[in-house]
């Protein structure tokens, strides 16, 4: 299985999991054409798309994905917010299991300023992948993880510096605190989970102004001893099941 990052920030989010036979698209915040290009225009191999929440950087193009006939899993909140009518919508509920092609999918609730779902995605080719974005925290732990895509949006000290320098509005702190994941929260989640079988940690949705990619990677690497990446557009990773 291959992970392709189409975009991972407040301007647009999109990720593809793809093997020779099938693919799963995570988020519909990237123009459909970019997803098509990444799939070599083989849209027919897409088993499903999964969408976390209604904000445009995650769901801005959801109607286009649906119009192309891509089955898309999302919550009833997204359907309402985006007035979706397509028969390709599949409404999902937290903590229930879904199947699409050979992918097994379990959504769970996160804490953002609108209802937001994280996802566990399983496939025999890659094992168990955790996807968490746009949340102040996560109240669950997850057994048997093999790959982690985890928001690491900002560091509080960088945010403080930006506010003191007048580059960021002071109200930003309480907004971010309740909507996006801070570096130490990200570390806390990684510490709370058993990482024995984790092969890759991909830090996603880094803030433009309040993050430091190299530092985040260094600190998470030091904490976990794992292979850590920042989800820059164009990143491609081979994510196979057998760890070592
Ligand atoms: Zn976002
Ligand atoms: Zn959001």
Q: What's the SSE blueprint?
A:
Blueprint: E1 2-9, E2 12-18, E3 23-26, H1 32-38, E4 46-50, H2 56-59, H3 62-67, E5 72-74, H4 76-81, E6 89-91, E7 98-100, E8 103-109, E9 117-123, E10 127-132, E11 147-151, H5 156-164, H6 172-177, H7 183-192, E12 200-204, H8 213-224, E13 227-230, E14 236-238
Parallel strand pairs: 3-4, 4-5, 5-6, 10-11, 11-12, 12-13
Antiparallel strand pairs: 1-2, 1-14, 2-3, 7-8, 8-9, 9-10
Helix pairs in contact: 7-8
One zinc ion (ZN) is lined by residues 10, 55, 57-58, 134, 205.
Short description:
The protein is built from eight helices and 14 strands.
Radius of gyration: 17 Å
Chain-averaged pLDDT = 96
Distance between the termini: 16 Å
Largest sheet: 7 strands, mixed
The small molecules bound here are: zinc ion
State the CATH topology.
Answer: Metallo-beta-lactamase, Chain A
Number of strands: 14
Strand composition percent: 25-35%
In words, what does this structure look like?
By secondary structure, the protein is an alpha/beta fold. It has a single domain (2-238), classed as Metallo-beta-lactamase, Chain A (4-Layer Sandwich). The chain has eight helices and 14 strands. β3, α1 (32-38) and β4 (46-50) form a beta-alpha-beta unit. The protein is globular, with a radius of gyration of 17 Å. The two termini are 16 Å apart.
């Amino acid at each position: 299985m291959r992970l392709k990052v189409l975009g991972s920030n407040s301007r647009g989010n999109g990720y593809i999991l793809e093997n020779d036979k099938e693919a799963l698209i995570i988020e519909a915040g990237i123009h459909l054409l970019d997803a098509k290009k990444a799939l070599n225009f083989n849209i027919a191999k897409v088993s499903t798309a999964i969408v976390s929440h209604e904000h445009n950087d995650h769901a801005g193009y959801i109607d286009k994905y649906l119009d192309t006939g891509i089955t898309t899993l999302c919550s009833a909140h997204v359907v309402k917010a985006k007035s979706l009518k397509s028969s390709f919508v599949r409404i999902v509920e937290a903590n229930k299991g879904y199947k699409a092609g050979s992918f097994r999918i379990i959504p769970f609730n996160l804490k953002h300023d609108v209802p937001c779902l994280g996802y566990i995605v399983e496939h025999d080719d890659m094992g168990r992948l955790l996807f968490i974005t746009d949340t102040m925290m996560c109240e669950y732990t997850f057994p048997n993880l093999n790959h982690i895509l985890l928001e690491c949006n900002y560091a509080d000290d960088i945010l403080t510096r930006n506010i003191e320098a007048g580059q960021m509005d002071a109200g930003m702190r309480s907004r971010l605190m309740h909507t996006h994941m801070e570096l130490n929260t990200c570390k806390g989640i990684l510490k709370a989970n058993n990482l024995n079988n984790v092969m890759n940690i991909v830090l996603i949705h880094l803030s433009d102004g309040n993050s430091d990619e190299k530092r985040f990677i260094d600190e998470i690497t030091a904490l976990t001893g794992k292979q850590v990446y920042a989800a820059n557009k164009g990143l491609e990773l081979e994510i196979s099941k057998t760890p070592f």
